């Protein structure tokens, strides 16, 4: 019994050393083409369900970048396959939010690129649904 404890503790120490050394030396660099291809393939899966789509969108929007139009189109098709219109609208809202300060430059380009897909799927932009303002929006009395 004592022998197995010593072996286990030695293996645990060696494993933890390996992890700590690898964590310091690994530099994660993901190229845009790899990321685009990976998420296009992910959203194009035929067996994808709503949970997987939400997980993929959450992971995708976690990067400090705006997704490319082919990825957005694949995600819109995935939403259509699971028949979740609300997820489509929320994803488009998140894309616009992800554009940040450059929304006036980047978002119109994205809308231009995905417009044929939106027409094909019968989806609307959040702006056409008046989701760009709160429902009970009132002008400030202090202005």
UniProtKB/TrEMBL annotation:
Metal-binding keyword on record: yes
Gene Ontology molecular function terms on file: metal ion binding
UniProt keyword terms in alphabetical order: Heme, Iron, Membrane, Metal-binding, Mitochondrion, Mitochondrion inner membrane, Transit peptide
Pathway: Energy metabolism; oxidative phosphorylation
One GO BP: mitochondrial electron transport, cytochrome c to oxygen
Chief place where the protein resides: mitochondrion
Spans traversing the lipid bilayer: none
Subcellular location: Mitochondrion inner membrane
A GO cellular component annotation in the UniProt record: mitochondrial inner membrane
Membrane topology: Peripheral membrane protein
Keyword Heme included in the entry's annotation: yes
Function field: Component of the cytochrome c oxidase, the last enzyme in the mitochondrial electron transport chain which drives oxidative phosphorylation. The respiratory chain contains 3 multisubunit complexes succinate dehydrogenase (complex II, CII), ubiquinol-cytochrome c oxidoreductase (cytochrome b-c1 complex, complex III, CIII) and cytochrome c oxidase (complex IV, CIV), that cooperate to transfer electrons derived from NADH and succinate to molecular oxygen, creating an electrochemical gradient over the inner membrane that drives transmembrane transport and the ATP synthase.
PANTHER family: CYTOCHROME C OXIDASE POLYPEPTIDE, CYTOCHROME C OXIDASE SUBUNIT 5A, MITOCHONDRIAL
Quaternary structure and interacting proteins, as annotated: Component of the cytochrome c oxidase (complex IV, CIV), a multisubunit enzyme composed of a catalytic core of 3 subunits and several supernumerary subunits. The complex exists as a monomer or a dimer and forms supercomplexes (SCs) in the inner mitochondrial membrane with ubiquinol-cytochrome c oxidoreductase (cytochrome b-c1 complex, complex III, CIII).
Family label: Belongs to the cytochrome c oxidase subunit 5A family.
Protein name: Cytochrome c oxidase subunit 5A, mitochondrial
Phylogenetic lineage: Eukaryota, Metazoa, Ecdysozoa, Arthropoda, Hexapoda
Gene name, Swiss-Prot/TrEMBL: AUGUSTUS-3.0.2_09255
